[in-house]
Structure prediction request, 204 residues.
Amino acid sequence: MSTARFITFEGIDGAGKSTHIEAVAGWLLEHGAEVVRTREPGGTELAERLRELLLHAPMDPLTEALLVFAARRDHVVKAITPALKRGATVLCDRFTDATFAYQGAGRGFDLNVLTQLEQWVQHGLQPDLTLWFDLPAEVAAQRREKARVADRFERMDTQFFERVNDGYRARAAADPVRFFRIDALLAPHQVAAQVVSVLEARGC
Ligand code: TYD
Prediction:
């Protein structure tokens, strides 16, 4: 299996992925890689502006899906593809699996349309490895209570996040080689150990 260089981090809000992205970046730097850390929605000036709208402005599901993919297009063209071309390792906090999980499974938006948009925007570009931080919706809700002011997604109820979890589960089942499920119920040091073991196994 070739070295994973485009690595994405997924999971419902509160699953704890952000802490581990930081750790992965440090680990890769120690191993001499050029690391580009980025996020979605966002990662470019334009996409960060779209992120503000997505997280805070009321909109219907189609507008939401189109904006997510518009932001992604800018991000792919200006940031991700150039970084991969020059040999950097790209760590991206969420990517298209989040769209299938949140807009698709969560909001109930047509998965066929999302698949078409994915093809249009990415022309086959997919992460080499996706670390999915899997946490029950109830536990994530408790963790989120302690966090900062909630955005439009974080305010959604537990049933919504159960559907989002189902969405991630379906994406993982459809692509078991790319996906690695992390049990986010474990203690942080155990989660970190799982992350390091998969990175080593994938030649990072
Ligand atoms: P998140 O990673 O949770 O940012 P932060 O940790 O800074 O709050 O991402 C922001 C939100 O965007 C998250 O609630 C999920 C949502 N989102 C979608 O609904 N669809 C998408 O395609 C992406 C990338 C994110």
